[in-house]
Amino acid sequence: MNRLMCANMSRLLRDRFFWICLAFMGLIVPLCNGIFGNFFYALSATAIPAAFCPLFLGAEYSDGTMRNKIAMGFSRFSVYLSDFTVCAVAGVLFNSAWLAGTLLLHRDGGMPIDLSLPFLLCIAGVCLAWTALFALLSLLIQSKAHAAVACLLTAVVTFLLGIQLTILINAAADKVAPGTQYPLELLRDLLPGGQAYVIAIGDFVTEGQLVRFPLYSLGLTGIVTIVGMAMFCRRDLR
Amino acid sequence: MGNLLSADMARLWRCKAFWLSCLFFAGQTCATMGREYWIGTQTIALHASLENYIFPFAFFLGLAAAVVCTLYLGAEHTVGFRNKCCVGHSRASVYGAALVTCSIASALLCTAAVVPGAILGPILLGEGVSAMALAMIAGIYLLSMAYAAVFTAIAMLISSQAAAPVVAILLSLLLLAVGYAGVQRLAEPPTIPNPAAAPPTIEGVEPDRDAAAPERIPNPNYLPDGPARSAVQFLTDFLPGGQSYQYGAVSTGTASMRLPQKMASCAAVFALSSTAGLALFRRKDLK
């Protein structure tokens, strides 16, 4: 698997779209945070990996690389894991670029975000969960165009679902049956889109959420990766 | 061009992305009505306004138009456009047929969202369809055609079947984000509560605060009447994303919708993107 990782990493560093996304996250997003607020970061941290992963992984299908890797004797398990890992590395680099850009921009003070370890772990968790979902879709859908649309729509719909659930939670909390918001809160906190929205608006009601979010994200990442591997192992690769 | 149009429309009826998007829009309107019904039962006030459940689909209009137009037209880049030009159709008629088909597709997406709301909404939630709402629905139809023109241009000019949807979807999200920012900035109040004069948050503990500090201070984000506010207002009304956000968020009580300006902007966006798209398509090398 080391050879697969080396090959993927060297392809990542030569990928033009990767550097465009990195520059966007490191330069444009911190500047826009001042205009749009953290909401723009949350949307970008969702949409940029959703755009990058299917184009990067989909090229393996269109170029025949995927078939060659399997033909050379690499197990499907190691192919999936190496592809997921390289996308996770890309996602972490995107968020690190944004963090570095924000720190540089606000080095004289007025940081728009909390730099505590729990908060950074939340961001890392959301990034991993998104990567797991996009890697699953990109590796199971062999058409690059359809994979790209599926990833972007999943990202946007999940993000919007997080917003809708927050509206419902706030409505239920004020009303006759305040207990009804707990299942909605659990669903909202489990979804990466819901977590991203809570991080964006800074609506951490309790400290428990800062601990729960990374754990939920880790759990979701594990489940999605295992399911993705199982489906990929059975997939007929054309 | 008649032959091209009938061929394109026949292909549209077999486009899965189009039907899935129609289903999504109809489902989204029904889900919004369900949400309003549920909130109404919680507050024992079952009387939601039409704006609460029929217009939120405008948020997704750009996204849906991006997906449908790029996936539908992307398939033509392999053989379709080249064959059409080889049999004698001009580039203008090929582009025109694609533009008309995508405009019809976008209008049908709006119809899929509006019809369930207009039929079921008054029955479930007890509010009829007003003249203002009808005018706004007409505005949204024009907005859908403006989106169709922009994404037709992108789909016709980008040959890569994967890159075109990505560019179109990211553009639709960017337009929506810019519209959101513009509307939020215009809605900023002239003054905000002064943090230095905040009341104590813990009973019995007086925070360090200046007793002479005013309760409210000028809001640095407020845009007073002037060139800056007019520019932001114009940009928010002109860009399709801004219009999407304003139509979709009408339930939150936005000010005058400025429908004539919006409709004129849609016509301008349609004309500009079609003209530029056609000019570039004429020069494009069709592989």
Strand content of the residues of chain B, in percent?
under 5%
Unreliably modeled segments of chain A: none
According to DSSP, the number of beta strands of chain B is: 2
Structural class of chain B: mainly alpha
Radius of gyration of chain B: 23 Å
Major sheet summary line of chain B: 2 strands, antiparallel
Spans of chain B of 5+ residues with little confidence (pLDDT < 50)?
none
The total domain count of chain B is 1
What does this structure look like?
The complex is a heterodimer of chains A (238) and B (287). Chain A has one domain. In chain A, helix 5 packs across helix 6. Chain A is mainly alpha-helical and 238 residues long. Chain A is 83% helix and 0% strand. Chain A has 10 helices and no strands. Chain B is mainly α and 287 residues long. Chain B has one domain. Helices cover 70% and strands 2% of the residues of chain B. Chain B contains 11 helices and 2 strands, in the order H-H-H-H-H-H-H-H-E-E-H-H-H. In chain B, strands 1-2 form a two-stranded antiparallel sheet. Chain B is globular. The mean pLDDT of chain B is 82. At the A-B interface, helix 3 and helix 7 of A face helix 2, helix 4 and helix 8 of B.
What order do the helices and strands come in, and which of them pair?
The complex is a heterodimer of chains A (about 240) and B (about 290).
Chain A: H1 2-13, H2 16-36, H3 38-62, H4 65-71, H5 76-105, H6 117-140, H7 144-174, H8 181-190, H9 192-201, H10 207-234
Helix pairs in contact in A: 1-5, 2-3, 2-5, 3-5, 3-6, 3-7, 3-9, 5-6, 5-10, 6-7, 6-9, 6-10, 7-8, 7-9, 8-9
Chain B: H1 2-13, H2 16-43, H3 50-54, H4 58-74, H5 80-86, H6 91-125, H7 131-157, H8 163-186, E1 191-193, E2 216-218, H9 227-238, H10 240-248, H11 259-283
Antiparallel strand pairs in B: 1-2
